[in-house]
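This entry is passed on directly below:
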Amino acid sequence: MFEYSGSIHMHSKFSDGSGTVQEIANHASESNLDFIILTDHNTLKAKAKGFEKWYKETMLIVGYEVNDIKNRNHYLVFGTDELVGTYEKLPDGDLGNRLSAVEYVKEIKKKGGIGFLAHPNEVRNHLKELPAYPWTAWESEDFTGMEIWNHMSEWAEGLNESNKLQRLLHPLKSIVAPSEVTLRKWDELNDKRKVVAIGGIDAHAHKHSIMGFEFEVFGYKILFKSIRTHVFVDNEIKKGETNNFEPDKKQIIDALGKGRSFIVNNYIGSGTGFRFFAEYDGEHFTVGDEIRFDPAKNKKIIFRTLLPSPARIRLIHNGKCADEITGLDCIWDSDEKGAYRVEAWKDDKGWIFSNHIRVI
C-alpha cells in the first residue's frame, strides 16, 4: 500500500478562522503535506466556491464541523457534499443544528458520509474565553470514529495565566500526548465495535494582543508541523493530476473511515515508514483490519511493528500495556481476542499512535 501524510481539522474565514483557503493551502504546500481537510463550522462554502482541488502537490479536501444548538457535540464530517439538518443562529452568532447529535450522526451515515467526534473529552473551566466543547451524545452508535489527539484542546487545557506567554511563543513544545481519558474511552469502544481514530490540529490562527503585542495563536504553518494523520491507500496518488482528483480523494476518505491510518506528532519526528501489521493463518492484516480468530486451528497471531527511528514501543491490548520495549521494531504473538494497537514515545512525549487491529 501507499502512505500519505495529512493534516486534519482547520478553519478558514468561511467560519471562525483568520486565513483564506488559498493562504491555508499555500502553507500546507510549503509544509510538504500530501493532503489537508478543511472543516469550517456548518458550511461547505469552500467547496461551492471551487477551493477543493490540488495546490501544487497538496490535495485540499473540504469537509465540515457540525454542532448542536447548545454548541456541543462537535462532529467532523467527510465524504458528503451536503449539510445535514437545518440550522439556527446561536446567541454568540455561531450556528447550531436543530437536529440532535444522535440524529445528525445517523443522517450523515445514511447519506454515505463518515464522521469523527471532535475533541470529545474537553474539560476546562479556568478560562472563560476558551470554553470546553465535549461530546455528550455517547448513546450514538453511528459515528465512524473519534479525534483522539487535538492540538488546540491539549494546548488550551494546560493553559493558565503563568504560562500563557510561554505557550503563545512556543505552541508546539506544550503538546505531550493524547488525553488518557480519550484513549481509555477509545479502547473501551473498540471492545464492542470498530471505532477508528484521527488526529487534528483545530487551527484557527486567532490573533491576540498581549502586553501591546499581537500574537497569532495556532498559526496554520506552525500547526502543520504538529499532529498529522498518515493514511494507507491501495493505489498510488498522482499528485497534481486533476483528472484523478475525485478517485484519489475517495481513497483518502475511505482509508480514514476504515482506520487504515496512524497519528503522528510530526514536531518530534517524521512518522513516515511506521508499520503495524499482523499475520494469521497465511493472511496479512494491517491497522483498521479485523481478524477472525479460530482457537480450533491452534495457531497464534503474529504482530509486528516497524519504526522510522528508535523509540519506546508499547503494545496496547484492550486498553492495557501488554509489553514495552525500546528499539526500532518488535514482534509479538498472541492467541487472545481483543483490540491491539501500538504507541511510540520519545523523551516521555507521545510520538506515534496506531489504529487498532481487532481480533474477534
